[in-house]
């Protein structure tokens, strides 16, 4: 009886090429000039924005009461009552831009936002 040995042919390996990437990416930092700060709230339009987190609306309701007491000439707009489509976490740049446009169209001089839990 003859014994048959398995074939021991050498496997051919392909040369691998690797590209090493920096996982932090490249950050392009552009300087931004902040908006001028208000010196008074008298006669200003103040928009209150709520993103639907628990109790955020309650806090903003209280802020609205205090503003009406302390700065009666200010116009206080509760965005969450005026445009219910804005009551959310935007979730995308497009939706954030849409909500920002709604606020801009209201003539806001100041926006107070609440993200409460």
Automatic annotation (TrEMBL):
Domain UGSC-like as annotated: residue spans: 19-86
One Pfam assignment: UGSC
Superkingdom to which the source organism belongs: Bacteria
InterPro entries: UGSC-like_dom
Identification of the protein by name: UGSC-like domain-containing protein
The organism's taxonomic lineage, starting at the top: Bacteria, Pseudomonadati, Thermodesulfobacteriota, Desulfuromonadia, Geobacterales
């Amino acid at each position: 009886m003859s014994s048959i040995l398995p074939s021991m042919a050498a496997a051919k390996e392909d040369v691998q090429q690797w590209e090493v990437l920096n996982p932090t990416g490249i950050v392009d930092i552009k300087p931004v000039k902040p908006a001028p700060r208000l010196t008074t709230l008298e006669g200003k339009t103040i928009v209150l924005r709520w993103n639907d987190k628990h109790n955020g609306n309650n806090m903003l309701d209280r802020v609205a009461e205090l503003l009406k007491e302390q700065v009666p000439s200010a116009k206080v707009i509760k965005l969450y009552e005026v445009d219910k489509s804005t009551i959310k976490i935007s979730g995308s740049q497009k939706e954030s831009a849409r909500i920002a446009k709604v606020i801009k169209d209201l003539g806001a001089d100041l926006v107070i936002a609440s993200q409460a839990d």
